[in-house]
Amino acid sequence: MKSDLKIKNDVLEELSWQPNIDETQVGVAVKNGIVTLTGIVSDLTKKDAIERAVKNIAGVKAIAEEIKVKYGDSDKHLDIEIAKAAIDALEWNASVPMDQIIVEVDHGTIYLTGEVEWAYQKDFAKRTIENLFGVKEVINNIQLSHKTTASDVADKIEKALERSATIDSKNIMVHLDENTIVLGGMVHSLKEKDDAEIAAYSAPGVTNVINELEVEYSPVYL
Q1: 198: how many CB neighbours lie within 10 A of its CB?
Q2: How much of the chain, in percent, has pLDDT values that exceed 90?
Q3: What are phi and psi of 39, to 5 degrees?
Q4: Which of 4, 111, 154, 222 could form a disulfide with 104 if both were Cys (CB 3.0 to 4.6 A apart)?
Q5: Going by C-beta distance under 8 Å and a sequence separation of 6 or more, which residues neighbour residue 94?
Q6: What pLDDT is stored for residue 218 in this prediction?
Q7: pLDDT tens digits for range 171-188
Q8: Considering only CA atoms, which of 128, 130, 102 is closest in space to residue 115?
Q9: What is the pLDDT of residue 138?
């Protein structure tokens, strides 16, 4: 089992290695494999880059992310400009039915409402705009209209997991509760846990995914 000190040192080295991250802006604490991140960054893209980097570290079981985004006065965008950029980005994304989505912006926070047919469309809408310059947060209140009638949704998800090059599916259990998928079992990293959740959301009729996968660190001996 990797010690908390070793995990912390690996996290700091990884943050230092990434060219788009200033590791001096980030505080790192580790307890029982759970990494707590603190600090202030200038935009949401940097915050997301930090979280992605930490997820790739072996031995990290979970992340408590407390990093704040604070824009300088000279970098603030008017809400109307953020709204226009968000609408333009959504219209360019063929996977998002823009005519069914409403965009509202309040002090840099985007609120998405409306109704789409599939969970992946709701997810793509948020992903499309969350890294736009000036965006502090995206609140995704889009509702799903599609109701599943297929009895083999869980089987479809299991097959999707088996096809994935980044997921070890043999230790993942899939349970379908109406339109909610519950993922259980063990994975080797937070990245693998996230990939499994993305695969589950892509199944037809799924409106929610409860990700109960646990991260098990497997040391590699050279």
Answers
A1: 14
A2: 20
A3: 135, 180
A4: 111
A5: none
A6: 57
A7: 788 887 767 788 888 888
A8: 102
A9: 92
Structure tokens at 117: 């047919």
- Give the span between the Cα atoms of 196 and 173, in whole angstroms: 11
Q: In what order do the strands lie in the sheet with 34-41?
A: 26-31, 34-41, 62-69
In this structure, what DSSP letter does residue 170 have? Answer: G
- Helical H segments across 97-189, by residue range: 119-129, 153-163
67: its two tokens: 């990093």
Distance from chain centroid for Cα 28: 20
Burial of 1 (0-12, 13-18, 19+ CB in 10 A): exposed
Residue 100's identity, in one-letter code, is: Q
R_g of the chain, CA atoms, integer Å: 19
Q: Which of 36-45, 50-59, 66-75, 187-196 has the lowest mean pLDDT?
A: 66-75
Q: Which two tokens stand for residue 208?
A: 């929610």
- Cα angle value 163/169/171 (rounded, 5°): 175
CA 36/CA 65 separation, integer angstroms? 6
Q: What value, to the nearest 5°, has the Cα angle with vertex 48 and ends 43 and 50?
A: 100
